[in-house]
Amino acid sequence: MNDMKVFSGRGNPELAQRMCDYLGLSLGRLSIGNFPDGEISCKIEQDVRGRDVFLVQSTCPPVNENIMELLIMIDACKRASAERITTVIPYFGYARQDRKDTGRVPITAKLAANLIVKAGADRVLTMDLHAAQIQGFFDGPVDHLTAMPVLIDHLRTVIPRDAVIVSPDSGRVKVAERYAKHLDADVASIYKKRSRDTVNEVEALGIMGDVEGKVCVIVDDMIDTAGTLCSAAEQLTANGAIDVLAATTHGIFSGPAVDRLKNSTMSKVIITNTVPVPSEKQFDKLVVLSIAPVLADALDAVFADSSVSEIFNGENQA
Q1: Do residues 223 and 252 make contact, with C-beta atoms less than 8 angstroms apart?
Q2: Which of 37, 188, 198, 264 is deepest in the core (most CB within 10 A)?
Q3: CA-to-CA distance for 36 and 31, rounded, in angstroms?
Q4: Structural contact between residues 220 and 198, judged by C-beta atoms closer than 8 angstroms
Q5: What is the crossing angle of helices 292-303 and 13-23, to 10°?
Q6: DSSP 196-241
Q7: Cα torsion angle, 231, 234, 239, 245, sign
């Protein structure tokens, strides 16, 4: 594997190191710093001419800093004559604005995709996008991975067979159904009742499905401020659920998220390490699973020009 080089930005270096350990590689030598005015400096400390280069960078908070750092890393590798540059973005920021849902707003997911491609990325490898159609925003190959196998393997050890997989909204029902299929579980969904009198105000949350006397698992792609997640957990408990867990890929934990999760009715909050969780944001209910083997296997497949979908039996495409 002499022609494969893996480098990491400052977004999630621990994950990149775990991926290299799994592959039996040394993490590439890269110097990243800041000039006194805040501008990012970058230097590749080893030869990448004619090499297959993988740049690992989660565009998590600080989002703007990490995205700009990724673009600069791409440019450095391109100017150093790397043969192929694959950006490995475990968490893709700016993905929530993926359409114009009202007038005079940007589509930042497309803007971020354009920046990455124009900087010189030949391929993108990412995980559990906020919306799968964002793959189409990139003018080039995109490998859209999923943390589902890792989360399912853990859930099998902590929930009973008659558990209920819960979608937090109508948009995640298909994902919940896929989890339920593998766990031999039932499916339920949370829906919002909008107020007729006040615009953009939720009057109440409702549940489609039977959750009384059941262990419920809310599955989603990310936890940001945790407001919707905690409200859903409260509604499940109020409807007779005996236990509620959350299983999500990305733990952003912005603002009041940690306090909300600590005080919620959920017994466990299960995430992966696509985004680093600092010590001050860790709490007793939190379970962090490593996604490094899945990402490393995908890197190996891309490097060997073999199928990435076979790693997931084709279930990474929806």
Answers
A1: yes
A2: 188
A3: 16
A4: no
A5: 60
A6: SSSTT-EEEEEEES--TT-EEEEEEEEESS-HHHHHHHHHHHHTT-
A7: positive
Place of tokens 């466990």: 268
Q: What share of the chain is helix, strand, coil (3-state, %, to 5)?
A: 35, 25, 40
Q: Residues 60-113: pLDDT tens digits?
A: 999 999 999 999 999 999 999 999 999 999 999 999 999 998 899 999 999 999
| Tokens at 158, concatenated | 């902590």
CA-to-CA separations, 115 to 40, 259, 298, 308, in angstroms, rounded: 16, 35, 23, 25
Q: Are residues 288 and 273 in contact, defined by beta-carbon separation less than 8 angstroms?
A: yes
pLDDT in tens, 21-53: 999 999 999 999 999 999 999 999 999 999 999
For this structure, is 214 an active site residue? no
Catalytic residue among 43, 78, 100, 192: 192
Question: Rounded to an integer, what is the distance from CA 203 to the centroid of its chain?
Answer: 30
How is residue 216 written in tokens?
């419920």
Helix (H/G/I), strand (E/B), else coil: 85: strand
Query: Residues in the chain, how many?
Result: 318
Tokens of 301: 């497949």
Q: CA-to-CA distance for 161 and 118, rounded, in angstroms?
A: 48
Strands in 268-272's sheet, in edge-to-edge order, are 202-208, 186-194, 164-167, 215-223, 243-251, 268-272, 286-289
Distance CA 94, CA 140 (A): 19
What's the CA gap between 58 and 70, in Å, rounded?
9
* CB burial string 108-122: b at 16+ within 10 A, e below: ebbebbebbbebbbb
